[in-house]
Amino acid sequence: MNTNLPVAIIGGGPIGLAAAAQLSQQNQPFVLFESGNQIGTNFLDYGHVRLFSPWKYNMDSAAKELLKMHAISLPDEGRLPYGKEIVDDYLIPLASLPEMKPYIHVNSKVHAITRKGFDKVKTANREQAPFVIQVQKEHSNETYEARAVIDATGTWQNPNPVGAGGIRAEGEEETSNSIRYGIPDVLNTERKRYEGKKVVIVGSGHSAINTLLDLAELPDTELHWLLRKKDVRETYGGMEDDALPGRGALGTKIQELVDSGQVNVHTPMFVRSITQEDQTLTIHGEVNGDETTIEEVDEIVSTTGARPTFDFVRELRYTFDPTLESVPELAELIDPNIHSCGTVRAHGEKELRQPEPNFYIIGAKSYGRAPTFLLATGYEQARSVVAYLSGDFDRAKEVHLNLPETGVCNSGNLFNTKSSQGSCC
């Protein structure tokens, strides 16, 4: 293989750009493909949401060095950024640097990756063949070659369905115009869609709680919360006793909202089907084995998490954990039934290896369906993988995470103002 070929990075979010910055620091050629029309498009989807972790943990070390080298000021490391600030104040300045910009391609969707002249089955001399990447651009289809591939595409664009059991509810696709997957900006750009409406929120994580807290600010809005958990109190966490103040504050706020009667809780509810009559929806499901319906619903917000997709790497030899769909070696470390966001043992290139040499899945996608991923973890993954690809095997092994034992998520006085109620890790 031509060792002068670049490393191809798929995904232009924080982790993909961190890998690019690390490669630049090591004087290794790279090319980065982002399917969106600009860098950081996933973060812009929830740009109104404030993160739990401060800037200190949301910037890659090599990226910071590049920015400093060009005398670009960095955000206050102790402040909690919004999603949009991650893009505007960090990713865009980073991607605009001369060491980065020429090698970044936006509006570039990767359709397929293979080995040159090799399908998935053929083995002999496979490792000597470069990777071939087919990319759909705005006005053309192009092919690139690379000596290694780093998949940092994340999972955000592949949300889990409303239906129970991990599959779409009957009628979910047909009623999708009334379903919002993710975290809507209900206090600003999407206010008219929800104000004065009957809204159902599906999911039990921080995204659901943040959405409920924002919706509660809208007048004349009827809220219904559907959870598969047996008891809504399972979502409250430790509240004031929580080692993570931001998460604890969320628990306290949502308990107050539930206790006030402003939100109607349906638990444990499993959605089976969604039907539409005139302009409203009816949700059909089960609660404790009994059939139940919620009628005259105007809007559904689905915050049930996300999952990875592997379509474009089908011709590569990849594998994943059968339960989490994570990188196999990470599964035991990130099982959400055991680990919180700050207690995942340090890991790097060795744990991220795939059966296909020089192909790596890093970032949120490496965690599969586990919800505990932190940017700081992804940055360390990128550093370790790039060190290995640069031939510095010792540095690749020296993996560590600078996180407090109980995690980096914190919010301090996050809930003092309405504008800061949206927050997540």
Describe the protein in words:
23% of the residues lie in helices and 20% in strands. It has 425 residues and is of the alpha/beta class. It folds into two domains: 7-157 and 306-391, FAD/NAD(P)-binding domain; 164-304, FAD/NAD(P)-binding domain (3-Layer(bba) Sandwich), CATH 3.50.50. The radius of gyration is 22 Å and the shape is globular.
| Spatial arrangement of strands, main beta sheet | 4-2-1-8-17
Low-confidence stretches: 404-425
Q: Can you tell me the overall shape?
A: globular
How far apart are the termini? 41 Å
Could you state the order of secondary-structure elements as H and E?
A: EHEHEHHEEEEEEHEHEHEEEEEHHEHHE
Q: Summarize the main sheet.
A: 5 strands, parallel
> Helical percent range?
10-25%
CATH H-level name of the largest domain... which superfamily? FAD/NAD(P)-binding domain
| CATH topology (level 3) name of the largest domain | FAD/NAD(P)-binding domain
Mean pLDDT: 90
Give the number of helices. 11
Tell me the CATH architecture of the largest domain: 3-Layer(bba) Sandwich
Structural class call reads: alpha/beta
- What fraction of the residues are assigned to beta strands by DSSP? 15-25%
Summarize the structure.
This protein is an alpha/beta fold and 425 residues long. 23% of the residues lie in helices and 20% in strands.
